[in-house]
Design goal:
This protein has helices at residues 2-32, 38-73, 75-78, 82-109, 117-140. The chain is an all-alpha fold. The chain has one domain (2-140). The structure holds protoporphyrin IX containing FE.
Length: 146
Amino acid sequence: MFLWLKALHIIAVVTWFAALFYLPRLFVYHAMADATDLAGRERFKVMERKLYRGIMTPSAIAVFVLGVWLLALNWDFYRTQGWMHAKLALVFLLYGYHGLCGRFLRDFANDRNTRSHVFYRVFNELPVLVLVAVVILVVVRPFGSG
Ligand code: HEM
């Protein structure tokens, strides 16, 4: 049971990150699109909306439900583990990032984006840092009980 949940958790993490990496990349291209290219801009809006609603948010919910389920199965252990506390703090930030993506998506949908493609290029790199840190925390467990 635990291992099945963990496998599903990791699958959901992978699909979530696929979208977390690709949506801000679409924002980069969308921010660079010519103001007169109406068809192109509308196409970006559809791609962004479908990615966010169809993949990114369902994956984030699956990661959360499966993660909390895993936590509940061994709560007395995880509650004492520093690596899990650090992981959950970073994951909390990642949900904030997800929410920001939703806000930027709405700005684009309403033709109200004012941020540059350079902003979105930098923004696009942030989930990489979380991914690297969380995988090291859960696999290496550099600090345990504390
Ligand atoms: C609400 C969010 C989350 C919760 C509550 C949660 C909780 C958990 C729990 C309890 C485990 C089992 C740990 C063990 O092996 O004993 C686990 C495994 C794992 N989680 Fe999460 N997680 C969440 C989000 C994430 C995210 C965002 C990532 C990636 C950035 C992630 C990556 C992993 C990985 C790679 C494993 C497998 C670790 C291993 O077995 O070596 N989790 N998670």
